[in-house]
Specification:
The protein is an alpha/beta fold and about 475 residues long. It has three domains: about 70 residues, no CATH class; about 120 residues, Aspartate Aminotransferase, domain 1, CATH 3.90.1150.180; about 240 residues, Aspartate Aminotransferase, domain 2 (3-Layer(aba) Sandwich), CATH 3.40.640.10. It is built from 20 helices and 18 strands. A seven-stranded mixed β-sheet has the order 5-13-12-11-10-6-9, sandwiched between helices. A hairpin with an 8-residue loop joins strand 14 and strand 15. Helix 18 packs across helix 20. The radius of gyration is 28 Å and the shape is elongated. The model has no long low-confidence stretch (mean pLDDT about 90). It binds pyridoxal-5'-phosphate. The site of pyridoxal-5'-phosphate (PLP) has 13 residues, from helix 8 and strand 11.
Length: about 475
Amino acid sequence: MIRNGSAAPNQVDRRRALPSVNALLELRGVESLLERAPRAAVVDAVRTALDSARSGALVPSDDDGWVAAIEQSLARAVQPSLRPLINATGVVLHTNLGRAPLAPAAIEAMTRIAGGYSNLEYDIDAGKRGSRYAHCASLLRELTGAEDALVVNNCAAALVLALNTVANGRGAIISRGELVEIGGSFRIPDIMERSGARLIEVGTTNRTHLEDYERALADATTAGAVMKVHRSNFTIEGFVAEASVAALRPIAEKAGVPIIHDLGSGLLIPLDALGLTGEPTARDALRDGATIVTMSGDKLLGGPQAGIIVGERTTIAALRANPLARSYRVDKLTLAALEATLALYRDPERALREIPILAMLGTSVEALRQRAGRLRDAVGPLASRSDIVESEASVGGGAFPSARIPSIALAFDKNAAELEGRLRLGEPAVIGRVADEKLLIDLRTVGVGDDAALALALGAALHGAP
Ligand SMILES: *Cc1c(COP(=O)(O)O)cnc(C)c1O
């Protein structure tokens, strides 16, 4: 036993007489850690445990306590930085939490491709070099009615590539009502200027008319594009007016200028069945007259992070030929996951069932209520500190900003902040939401397969909580 300096030492005495690094390394429990982890990592873990005891954490009272503290430091040091967690925020497409979880089919496709070689840029039939851009193009054509398609790293990259290709050194006409910030300090006007296009702002924040575009197209003999941006994360109401893509098409065509429609969230099928209406699908946007449409792969489409560009053949060909395309090129795992996700959309019913974010959005409140009941049962007596309450989930990720989705949560109204921290720092981390001094664990965003882990995490966090 390591002596802490007094017969019945209190915390202060123990802190004054902390054991040495070497003494701790000689403990049997610590020696056995050396068989599992490199010596340097164990020494670091010993130092971390000593540091935290020195700086005010509880000082272990015996050898077992020290071994446990050192084991915990070691576990923390070797755990990966990027790790799974449970999203109990009720925000389905949470950008901070990785947006869309992938469908099983997409995960299988990635696994199939990840460990070996593939025909990423090889045409097997012809026996010669092929193009990585061939892989998702035909599915995207089929699902959107587009003449051609191109996939890059994300929608922001898609926008820069599109504008740089058609409007570099020329003007891009955009309504002042669409100069939006998407989040994480990503602003449409900034990204437009970086692409080399000169911003030609028309209209006002609340009203932009067709004539505003007409005037700009007539003045600016150098206009390279008309840009429409979907207001993803807010709505404007009241005295408002905007020119639709359908109305813009004839005047843009007359001026020989393409229309780039940034949809943001990539809807491939209408989601009216889920009570979500009013956002155009990519097919609608093209039919309305957009020359090209840009959208994200990991928002409502429910696939991997990607920027999808669909539209007219000649414009897509020009984008593909732009040297910048090389710096935004998408990797094989993304293409594998995207192709498998897109394939699910061939049968919309199947897409709604198997694409996790669509399944989450489609779960009935009654089903969530039953899960909440089972969750409380699994947690046991400590669950009596919670109530099953009605809550409101949201789509997030810049889609259907005003949709409030009825949901069910476990609500803890005692020591909400403390409990939030315990759950967040547990393994796996559980991220809830604190509102009105209550901690809400919203079940709409918890994967069905995570219920058991969530019950364990809740049990552990409640155990010994004040
Ligand atoms: C989200 C969004 C983007 C950016 O998409 P990423 O795939 O995150 O780069 C661009 N435009 C709009 C309208 C968006 O909603």
